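Troubleshooting: if your tokenizer reports a length mismatch, compare your output against this known-good record of 247 residues.
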Amino acid sequence: DLKSVFNFIKAYRSSIQLKLFISLTAIVALSLTTILATQAYLVQEYFIRQAEANLRSSNYLLSRVLADPMFEKDLNLLQSRLQAIQLKLPLCNFQLKDNVGTVVYKVGEVNSHVDTDFDPNSHDGCHNTVIPVIHGEELLGTMRMGVRTDDIAQARKDLIQQSALFSLLWFALFMLPFFLQIRRMVSPLSNISTAAQQFAKGNLDHPAPTLVPGDDEISQLTTSFQGMAQALVQNRDFQAASLATIS
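Known-good structure output:
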């Protein structure tokens, strides 16, 4: 009935087995979560440093690639190189101006904001930068472009998902032997508790708990309880024999 179910749940909630399992689960889960968060942070920092290094290298190469056709005023070569840049780089937008401010080439809506730090989680998904185009010491123009950052954000998301799956796997692998060990520890205690309740009611014929192999505290407790149970039975038998003799 409902009362029996309630009593079972109440007894199970107060069991040392459940308390140990919950405590151990919380410790392992907290440890794995901390490791996962640290790993995600470190990998994101590595991705950002790599992206910044690649961006600096790309900026230098872009300036060199466009400087020659702009200096020689070779519009066909300039157009060809600009199209190649657009195909090779993950650009959100791109704008090239000459030294008098005339727009030579433009793709997309250029953001007037310039980002100082590379942020893979930027609201517009772009890293906006301005690059001078220099030939020798002469300033030929400026490039303003936005490089997409969503690939870094997606890589970070994929890493977190994969790490979470591995963490769940390791969590299950860690918890299974611990749970079995907790069961091995608590089961004899439950048997001892049941036997003690029966002995307290005067049922000295109730079987004593089976000896637990080993030399730990639970094994010693089981051995001591069996010795106590045998002593109680012997005392009962001795008293019964004494009463029979007197009668």
